[in-house]
Amino acid sequence: MARLLSLSSSSRSEGSITSRLLKEFVSEWKLVHPKDSVLELDLSKEKVPYLDEMLLSAIYADPQARAEEQKAAYKQVERYTEAITDSDVYVMAVPMYNFSVPAVFKAFIDLIVLPGVTFKMNGSAFEGLLKNKRAFVITASGGNYDQPPMSKMDFLEPYLRSVFGFLGVTDISFVKVQGHDAAIVAREQENALTKIREYVKRGSLTAVK
Q1: Cα–Cα distances in angstroms (integers) from residue 29 to residues 2, 166, 176, in the given order
Q2: Backbone angles phi, psi at 45, to 5 degrees
Q3: Comparing 209 with 149, which gets the higher pLDDT?
Q4: β-strands 134-141, 89-93 pairing
């Protein structure tokens, strides 16, 4: 039995394309993999804390010597690191905001990239500790960032591939809805749903052609 971690990061309470597709993914997963457990986190509603002086001091303090306020701060970090380390498959709804990820998702990443927890030093090299895990990213943007000239402005996909690759997650795939013309967006969403169903049916994130 595996565990699926579902992460939503849209600021919209209604009308979010990525949130809608994420719900479809999770619903399909539960039908196809009924024995798997699912943890769903809406990062916008979670109010993920941003790194501040207290959080940084708690993260890098000796665990045996943390002050009470540091212990309280570190519990916020543990909530998300445990969600990541204890899950086998990640599905993340990450809309493109100003060419990159939403601020709340960046805050989440800042809390989970931790030495000794999600990566370690192996000699003079870094080694990711989130091995044998799979990630699936659902994203939406107001334009097509797969083609020039806008492809140079896509800092979302390269960033997520780099961060999760650093942590050991190399099996990461994207489903995108791109554009703002209503007809194009409708077609892109239908294509995305088809791809999501195929991914879930296979139980794999191997690219669907």
Answers
A1: 11, 27, 19
A2: -80, -25
A3: 149
A4: parallel
